[in-house]
Amino acid sequence: MSRAFILLLDSFGLGATPDAGKFGDTGANTFGHIAAWAAGQGKPMSLPNLERLGLAAAARQASGEWAEGFALREGFTGAYGAARERSTGKDTQSGHWEIAGVPVEFDWGYFPREVPSFPAELTDRLQELTGIPGYLGNCHASGTEIINRFGDQHVAEGKIIVYTSGDSVMQIAAHEEHFGLERLYAVCEAAFELVKPYNIGRVIARPFLGENGNYRRTSNRHDYAVPPPSPTLLDHVKDAGGEVIGLGKISDIFATRGISRVVKGADNMALFDALLKVGGEAGDGSLTFVNFVDFDQSFGHRRDIAGYSNALHELDARLPEFIAAMKDGDLAVITADHGCDPSWPGSDHTREHIPMIFFGPGLKAQQLPISETFSDIGATLAKHLGVQPTLNGTSLL
Ligand SMILES: O=P(O)(O)O[C@H]1O[C@H](CO)[C@@H](O)[C@H]1O
Ligand SMILES: [Mn+2]
Ligand SMILES: [Mn+2]
């Protein structure tokens, strides 16, 4: 029996890549800066389970130095390394697709750092099609900050909050009750058609609740994403008859391509519960792919170092449950899709190495070379499952 699991910690970077300067990210280091912050608080991080698999050693390989509070230890159990990205962007879709064998070598479109960020011909047409009374924001923004800035006006006037970021994205925020969730989804569907000529990766619905200047986003986020340009590992597994189970936002990121089953979870720990349940059910030849979104959405973009650190400790504490439930023939990898250094200026992602930490019953503990593409992960899992090799990447095991 062969099964594969990808545990993707969204935005968990291990230090800037050689090309980070092109992104203004020289010196960024998601893990390293969280560890330094924790040590500075007099409470160094303690991630014994991730560390035993090789996380700290992989981070050292990527960044050239030990994260504070971590040092050389004996007795690794994982096959650990780090990878650099070949895709031109540092966004979620590029990262995930590249892991699955399809780097994004074309340039995404981006909306400029101007106000308004969105071209009038796009917003005028969207207004015509949907009947909305107008727009608020129309700029680069952090999604939690902008709903508090414009929430009251949105509720009073019915105008939608539109914003973007360093990602190739149009985000639309609206109140679930005053505006209506289904209505927001309908506006996003119309917008998704209209952004196509601009080569935009995603439109994201960002529903929120609350009143009087005090608003919070709900878990009813929905992403409308373009599909990967070529078949990915997910398609190969599904075509070979294996079940492909996408947990969290995986199905959205792949625009449902290659997905057999979708399982949602409100937060990292709910997703971990779901992973354990799915792990008990997944059959021979299956691929289970989970995206732990809180690292990025709740802590990285929010520049919340303490929150990010806490989330890493929470995940580390639960890893033994997953490891204990692994069966002979299972291969899992802990990885990420880009960085989002919570100590870095702004609120965007950071161009960093990602961890590649393989583990499973009988796997030989070893250090892997630094990979020049995230696709080595997909290639490794394709070989493990005995399915068609990914278009890019070389198996590491
Ligand atoms: O600030 P919020 O809305 O969380 O936005 C973040 O989430 C989006 C998708 O990952 C990105 O565009 C990023 O900027
Ligand atoms: Mn991401
Ligand atoms: Mn993000």
Automatic annotation (TrEMBL):
Catalysis performed (reactions): 2-deoxy-alpha-D-ribose 1-phosphate = 2-deoxy-D-ribose 5-phosphate; alpha-D-ribose 1-phosphate = D-ribose 5-phosphate
Binding site for Mn(2+) 1: 10, 337-338
Domain Metalloenzyme: 3-388
Cofactor note: Binds 2 manganese ions.
HAMAP family in the cross-refs: Phosphopentomut (MF_00740)
Organism this protein belongs to: Massilia glaciei
UniProt keyword annotations, A-Z: Cytoplasm, Isomerase, Manganese, Metal-binding
Cofactor or coenzyme needed: Mn(2+)
GO biological process: 2-deoxyribose 1-phosphate catabolic process; 5-phosphoribose 1-diphosphate biosynthetic process; metabolic compound salvage; nucleotide metabolic process
Organismal lineage: Bacteria, Pseudomonadati, Pseudomonadota, Betaproteobacteria, Burkholderiales
Gene: deoB
Binding locations of Mn(2+) 2: 296, 301, 349
SUPFAM superfamilies: Alkaline phosphatase-like, DeoB insert domain-like
Superkingdom assignment: Bacteria
Pathway: Carbohydrate degradation; 2-deoxy-D-ribose 1-phosphate degradation; D-glyceraldehyde 3-phosphate and acetaldehyde from 2-deoxy-alpha-D-ribose 1-phosphate: step 1/2
Family that this chain belongs to: Belongs to the phosphopentomutase family.
EC primary class: isomerase
The protein, known as: Phosphopentomutase
GO cellular component: cytosol
Role according to the record: Isomerase that catalyzes the conversion of deoxy-ribose 1-phosphate (dRib-1-P) and ribose 1-phosphate (Rib-1-P) to deoxy-ribose 5-phosphate (dRib-5-P) and ribose 5-phosphate (Rib-5-P), respectively.
Location in the cell: Cytoplasm
